[in-house]
Amino acid sequence: MNSGRAFKCRVLIVEDDPLVLETSAAIVRGFGFSVRAAEDGFVALQILREALPDIILSDLRMPGMSGFELLSIVRRRFPHIPTIAISGEYILASMPLGLLVDHFFQKGGYTPALLLAKIKELIADSPIRPNLGKADRAPLWIPKQDADYVVVTCPECLRSSSISDNIVTEELKQTECVACGATIRYLVDASILKVLEQKKKILPLRERTGT
Q1: Residue 134 domain flag
Q2: pLDDT, tens digit (0-9, with 9 covering 90-100), for 124-169
Q3: Cα 52 off chain centre by
Q4: What is the rounded CA–CA span in Å between residue 47 and residue 51?
Q5: Helix axes 18-30, 112-125, angle to 10 degrees
Q6: Where are the alpha helices (DSSP H) in the chain?
Q7: What is the Cα–Cα distance from 82 to 60, expressed in whole angstroms?
Q8: pLDDT tens readout for residues 31-89
């Protein structure tokens, strides 16, 4: 992407925390890009009706319409628009690239330089984005907060739903999508089980100490 293209880049940032939204918008404007900001998924959809951005950066946990729901709509209706999910609430356990998002950043785990490089890369690739087809296994997201569930994204309709982490074992499992009824297959490896076990050890401690 040349410098002329960079200054014409239109970025939509979706984030419910006003301070994070303001800071993120300032950083991206510092790249020389045009920025539209939305405090939730519904506002983002209104902006999309007015003009399509070149790329979308979205939080995942938001009131009203979550980032999971927004990104599923964007991927179905505007598959050519690259998307980046940025979240401090979830850990990405597994994600077939291009299914729901094209990249994931953990909040606090990246620099402006890394963000700029990824935006440039995704926008440069978007006109020739390959059709990756249907994924045979669902993406898994693990909440960082004390929670007894994981989130799976249906490869068919791209809607996300939660399942109890008590039924998560290190083998190929399946469940039914609550939105479209499709069979969702998901796989948990040893590293994911380790994260879930650590969360369960921390939870009783916090319940005892009240922290």
Answers
A1: no
A2: 877 655 554 555 666 677 776 666 777 888 877 778 888 776 655 5
A3: 19
A4: 6
A5: 70
A6: 3-8, 18-30, 41-50, 67-77, 112-125, 190-209
A7: 16
A8: 999 999 999 999 999 999 999 999 999 999 898 888 988 998 898 888 889 999 998 88
Altogether, the residues listed in the chain come to a count of: 211
Domain closes at, from 72, 96, 128: 128
Residue that terminates a domain, selected from 85, 104, 128? 128
Among the listed residues 60, 76, 58, 49, the one whose alpha carbon sits nearest the alpha carbon of residue 12: 58
Number of structural domains (the chain) is 2
**HEC sequence for 104-144:** EEECCCCCHHHHHHHHHHHHHHHHHCCCCCCCCCCCEEEEC
